[in-house]
Structure formats: C-alpha cells, structure tokens
Structures
1.
Amino acid sequence: MLQSKKVKKTKLIFYVDPMSYGNLGIYDFNLINNMKSNKIFFFGNINYDYKKFSNKITTSFLFSYSNKSNNFKKLMSYLSSMISLTKAVLVLKPKTIHIQWIKFWFVDLLFLLLLKNRNINVVYTAHNLLPHNSKKFDFIKFKIYYNLIDKIIVHSNETKSEFKTNFNLNKNIHVIEHGILDINISTNDILSTKTKTRISDKLKLKNKVVFSVLGYQDYYKGCDIVRDMWSQQSFFSENDNFQLIIWGKNKGIDYSILSDLMNVNIRDEYISNEEFVSIVQLSSVILMPYRDISQSGLLLTAISEGVPVIVSKAGGLSEVIKYGKVGEVMNNLSPTDLMFTIQKFINNSNNRVYNNSEFSKVKKEFSWDKILVKTESLYSQM
C-alpha cells in the first residue's frame, strides 16, 4: 500500500512593527518580503516609506501614534491600534507572532499576556537590550517582558552574552544578523537633484578627508568623544585638508567649543534620506565611538555604500569588521584612542586597505538571503 507524503502545513505568522519607518522599514521589507515557507501578515506604521511589499504579504498599516502631537494622544492612538491588532489575533488565530519593537510598555505587556493565555508563540527581536539612556526601572520592565517571550533574536554574539549576563535568561536566544541597509534612494536620484554636488560645493569637500558623525547626537553615541578629540588636537582642528561634518538632531551634546572652527560643519536638525545618503557617500570615514548599542543602521548603511567606519567595541559593531577590513576598531572610549585610531585609518586608507573586495566579504556575510533562512528556520521550531 502506498504511503502518502506528509504535507508541510503553512504557518500563519503575524509580524508586528509599530516603528516600521526609516531604517526599521527597510529592515522589515528585506526580512519578510521574500519568505516562502510561511504566510505573513504585516502590521506596520502608517509612515512606512520603503518599497511596496509583494502581493504574498498581507499588509495593514494600523499604527499612527507617531503622527500625534503629544504623549497622551500617542498613547491613545497606540492603544486603539493594539485593540485592532488583538481583534485580528482573535479572528485569524496566528501560530506565531513576531514583534519587532515595543513602544508603550504597559500596553505591550497586556497584549503579550493575552498571547500567552491563548498559547500563541512569541518571537521578539531585541534591536537593543534596553532603550537608549535607560533608567533603573527600564531594566525591571524589560526583564518582566523578556521572561514572557518564547524566543529572542539578537544581532550579534556580543549582545547575546550581554543578554545572558544582564537578564540571566535560560531560554533560547538566537543570533540572527542585521542585514545591510540599502536606503531607497538611487545614485541617479541624488545626481538628478544635485544634492550631493550642492553639499560638496557648499562645504568645499573636494580633495578633503571627510569625517562624519550622523544621526541623533547623543551621549550613548560618544559624540562628546569626537568633540573633545577634535577640539583638543590642533592636528585636526587646524588642518585645512580635514572636514568634520556633524549632522543630525542634537540630544544634549554641547558643541559650542567647535562652533568657531573653520573645518567643522554642524547641523542640528533631521536630515532627509537624500541628504543622508549624499553625506555618507561624500564621507571618507564614519565615526562611531558608541558607548552603548547592539547594532547600528548607520554602520550597515555605510557598508552598503562602501564607506569605511571607525567603531567602538559596543554591541556588534566590531563583529562586522571581523569579516572584512572595512574600518578600524577603537580599543578604548577616549579622545586619545579615537585620535590614534583615526591616524591608523589614514595610514591604511593611503595603502588602499579598505577596498571593494573587503566590503564584498562583509556584504556576503550579512546578506538578507542568509538572514531570511535563519529566520524561517526559527519559525519552523515553534
């Protein structure tokens, strides 16, 4: 008698990201758009601004809290969205829910308790162990939340070790790398709008070594280390061949000591995607002396654009450089060490150490195809 083959049942996965815009929108698209083994329902933010998902992905952009004017309105909007999500859970009964971010902890905790009550598997991607500039109560809140999750995804082995040390979790923590970020702005777009040329001409960047500090300017990013190094070393502050670009919304870094220097340009505001990509492409090196991070969208954008980086050992930043010589790693978080690391970078740059083949090695290791396989494998275990 012939034995029939066992048919593998397709799982229904709810993929939930309340912050699916900017870099997270890029992450979401690349992670789930080409999934084959599961049926994906994507619940994202109304401000999602990346490529259109394939018809195989059912999308619902139900989170709009980010457009509200104050915290109370944001909370009410978020609560309304989570109620809608809960209704979808009760009607469609997904096998697994993959949560990418939590925004209002108490609301998210209630939702998580509901999922556990209905025996729904929950995967959570911890892009950071704790919120930036977190307080003691944040640790308590997240420890409660993490202990209710079935499987946690982190982006580096270093973060996995920190997780086990800080939260003493016995459950499975899985390392699935964060893929290379390719912002949806083509070189043709930048050329047609002349954004890159305009910035280069205005800042007189031609034939200069350009150092960039981009995105939110914050203490956890070590922006003060860059400030102190540049202001204290005449080799940098008085060098006409060097240019320091500091662009992004300032979260409390005092840059007044740099304000009179001719080779420093500071812009305290949000920057558009076109300007961001243009600055990355114009940079000789991106400075990232972070004190605390798990993985960085800026780092992965720089790799995508073939621009070297100088990073600290925080989180998974230095792990990227293990796969290819695409930059330098600081030994210590100090202005002096940053200075020595930059000097090393300049010497290696002159010797063409950071070449296309090195960037190709890293891009291959952090390819979305590999990450997709690992993620679907994790889903299959639940």
2.
Amino acid sequence: MKKQKIEKEIVYEGLGFPVILRNVPMIEVRGVWTPDIDLNFFQKYVLLKLAYSPSDLTGDQIRFVRLWLGMTQSEFGKLFNLTHAAIVKWEKTENKSSKMNVSTQRDLRMLILDKLLQQDEDFRKAFKIVHTIVFSKKTQPLECDISTDLVAV
C-alpha cells in the first residue's frame, strides 16, 4: 500500500530554482517523500507563471526556459540577436535578477506564451497583458497552491 499525505508547504527545487508549493499531495517512494503531481503539466504551469510574473527573471529561471525549449546557449541567444556570452552572463546570476533589459524580457515571455498557448485569441490577450507589466528588479519565488492552481489551469 502506498503511503500518501498532504504537505502544507514545501519549497520545490526540482526545476533548478525555488517554487513554493502549498497543499501538496505527497507520496512515499523508496522511503523518500516526493510530490505526487504531473511534472510535465507542472512545468507548463510554471512557464505560464514566469511569463506573467512582474519580477525580473533570474538566471536559473532563464536556464529552465532555455532547457525546456531544448536549445543551447548559442541557439537561445540568436533568438534575441545576442551572443552566447550574454546568455552565460544571465544564467550565471543564478537565483538573482538577470538584469535582462525590458524589451528582451517581454520577447522571452512572448516566446514562452507562443509555445504554450494554442488559440490565437489567448495569445492576443497574453500579448496585451505582458506588454503592460512593469517589471520589478526584486525577485520573488513563484508560489503555487496545488489544490487550486493546478486544478484551475
């Protein structure tokens, strides 16, 4: 019989940066408690949260996006007319603001949304939202209430 429980709050670092999860279903696997969630779906949820987040993206978050897209640093840089060195510089900031300029932040967020949103209408709405966000240099961890957020997506 599987052991299961609900954890009130955990900090999940499995994507390469901290995400605060609340009301997390947990399952014991080989003596280790792990979140009992669909990780592919969760990754897409996190990408949407990053796209709409008013905080500057961190280096770790940029690395996550780049790897999710399956790109090298050089390929990723070419999307934004930047060098490999610029991408390395962003990613080296780790869990701090990458200091990416605003127009590139918007372009990256639109790229994420273009890959995730299926309907043109949804993309048009997202475009308007992303272009009105005033980005903050202060970074904050993403937060997710599993019991409501992942069900609503």
3.
Amino acid sequence: MPFNSLDFGLFFLIFYGVYLTLQKHTRLQNVWLLAASYVFYAFWDWRFLLILIGITAFNYMIGLSLAVKTSGWISRPPARRILLAVGLLGNLGTLVFFKYLDFFKAGLLQLTERIGLPSDVLLVDLILPVGLSFYALQASSYLLDVHGRRIQPTRNLLELALFIGFFPQLLAGPIERAGRMLPQFHQPRLLTPDTVSTGIYLLLSGFFKKLVVADNLGVIANQVFDNYASYSGVDLLIGGLAFTFQLLADFSAYSDIARGLARLMGIELIVNFRLPYFSTSPSDFWARWHISLSEWLRDYIFFPLHRAFLRAKSRSGRLAGLLVPPLLTMLVSGIWHGTGWNFILWGLYHGILMVLYQVLVRERPAPGGIAAEMPGQVGVRKWASVLLLGLGTTGRILIMFALIWLGWLIFRVETPDQLGYFLTHISLATSPVSTSIWANLVLFSFPFLVVQVLQQVKGDLLVLARLPVGLRIVLYGAALALMVILGVRQSSEFIYVQF
C-alpha cells in the first residue's frame, strides 16, 4: 500500500475519521493507531507482520531486563552487556539474515557440499520484509539508549509497539529515537490550526516532489543508465544529474509525506533532509542528508570509535583515530544500503572524502554531522585550505555538489564497466537528443530547485507554508494541477522502500 496509491488514500481517510473521534481518549487512540499500522504493514505481506510483532516483543523483554536494579547477577555490568549484545544480535541478526543471505548463499552451498550436509534449505529465496532496514535500527537504538541510561525502558507494550511500528515512518523512516517518540505516544495529542496547516503543506510538497519531479526525472535517468553506450558525453552528464535530483526529490518526498501524516495526528517526526545539495563539505552534507541515519551512525558507531582512539597516545594510534572512525562508519552506511560492490565503494568514497577534508581543509565540522568530533588537523596543506576556502561559499557548494554527483553515479551504476564508461565518456559532446533530454531535466527539476533556493535563502524549510492564506491556496491549486498534468501515469515505488 504505497503512499502514492488510491488504496492508501482510502485507508487513511477511514483511519483518520476514527482517529479524530478518539481525540479525548489517548489509550483508545493508540490502540486504533497500532491496529491501523499493523493493517498497513500486513497489506504488503502478512508474514512481514509476524516479524514486526516478534521484534517488538523481543525488544520489550530485553529493555525491561536491562533496567533490572536488584542485587542479582542480571543487574551487573557484564550481564547488562550480554543482554545488550543479545538484543542487538536479535535485531541486526534478523536484518542480516533477510537482507544479506543471498550474498553468502554461494559460499554456504559450497561449504555444505564439502561436509555432506543437505543444502535444500539454502535454495529458498527469501524476500526482505519492507521497512526492516529502518525499524531494526530504530529498535536497536532503543536498547542502546536504555543500556546507556539515556532513557528509561517503557513498561507500556502498546507504546513501544507504536514506536517501532508507527505506519507513516515504518517503511523508509525517518529512523526515530525513543526519547523523542515515546513521550508523544504517552500524552494527549492536541491538533492546532498550525499543525494541520503545515501537515497539509508537507503532504502536498511530498506528493508533488514524488509525482512531478522524482518520477519524471527517473524516466530520464533510467533511459540514460539502461542504454548508456548509445548516448553522447553530455547525455551521460544529464543522466547523472537527473538521478542526483531524482534521489533527493524521491527520498525527501517520502519523509515529507511521513511528517505530514504524523502532524495531522499531532505527532512530530524529525526533519530528515535540510537542503543537502547546499553543503560546503562532507561533514556538512551528512548533517543535512538522511539526518536520522546520519545521527544513528554518528552516535552508535562514529562517536564510540572516536572516543576509543582518543585514548591512544602514539602517532600511529592518532593516525588510526583519524582514519578508522569515518571510513568504518561510512562503510557501514554503504553496506546498510546493500552488499553490491557499488554500495560498498560509495561508502568508502564518502569516508575518504571526510578524511581528506579534515586533513586538507581548515574548517570547523558542521554541528551534528558524523565528523563533528573529528580530531585536529593532521599535516594541513595550507595551499589546499586557502584555495578551497578562498572560493567562497558558492564555490565550495559547487565543488561539493560535483563530489556528491560523482558519489551518486557510483551508487547508481550496476557494473564496474558501466562506471568506467561513464567516467571516461562524459564530455560536452552532444547528440540529436541532447536538447530534448536537457529540456526535460529543466522542466521537471526547475520548480523543485526554485523552492530549494528559496528555502536556503530564507533559512526556513516551511517558508511556503507561512505565506498568506490566499497565496497558499493559489500555490496549492497550481501544485495539484501540475500533479494531474505532469504526473507520471505509471507511479513507481519510493526508492528507499527497496533498501
């Protein structure tokens, strides 16, 4: 039941009507919200729902066990660490089993043949439950925060089930934290004109970006990437740009719709994108792109590794402290997207960028970014720092955008030969279809880019939602008209639901 389907529209209208009638009964509202979330998830495959319920019950029990304060062995630090390891193994092990079994299947088949064990069970093709990559991390963050005494475990199973299974963000995030979400499920949720107004704006923004921008740009990108050898150098460049804008429009569209749906329920979700293509450095980019995942990687992988290496006093230890945390963190990010060589290379590419910017450029890492606590500069090359910073903000944004574009090219290609072809054939050489491809790129990305520039200049992601009512009505009407006229007739699934 994708957001961009008539089935979901009917589902939400029925759900929301009942939800509003239960406004003064928080517990009944929560029961109804959980039931709707489970129906929504079961629509994809009822077997997926069993996994979601199992993970919820498992984390509930582990969370309570981590909070035991008796004098018994279970309250001692070694036992709590074992409980945490069991909890993380249950969450992340489930994700690894479903997502990466095919990657290891060939080796496992060879092993079973050598030792004479039956291999029939390995021939079964497993389907990755939608959303598992997201709610497995969300459930793991709950256990990590309970173990670290940052939050108290909830004794309310209903509220924990909502935290893990809340349907607006279940399939593709944002990856929320229990400290932000559990209090919202516990207390009455009041709807104000402002929350409803911004919720409607976020919904329209999300559907416009998906139907008009992302899906049309996806047509351009697919044509070029699927038939790359038949296009000229500038066509390859345009195809890469189309995918670059498609990915941001598509993923931020899902996040906008999720936030809009949540606001209509009186619930606030984290902002997942803050104009990432206006970044001036890698750390700035990761403070703006897929923020909820960046924060997860920062808090649970980068910071622990960085603190561990801070204790190193030798030169080699300090060097390892500079290299290992960003490279390993971004490698995990790449593997989280998949085990394809392109995802792994993409992760390492961004890890190397982070290290190079810290070594070569005199800059203060962006607050909240993965590299926010990188150690001091090591052997800074003054010429590189002066050259890059001397370009000004606009120059640094353009350089970073080019580096981001190259990263998305690595992310999108399917074979090393395809990547090599793109890198060696991109040029300003045109073809008979170059003008039409460029015109389509401009047509479908222009409204999106204009809004992004306006948001950047005003420093406000909701700048359009604050316009006078009359102007908003005209703007919303125009957006709906463009969705009808320019929307792709064959709607596609959101890209990140696949991960």
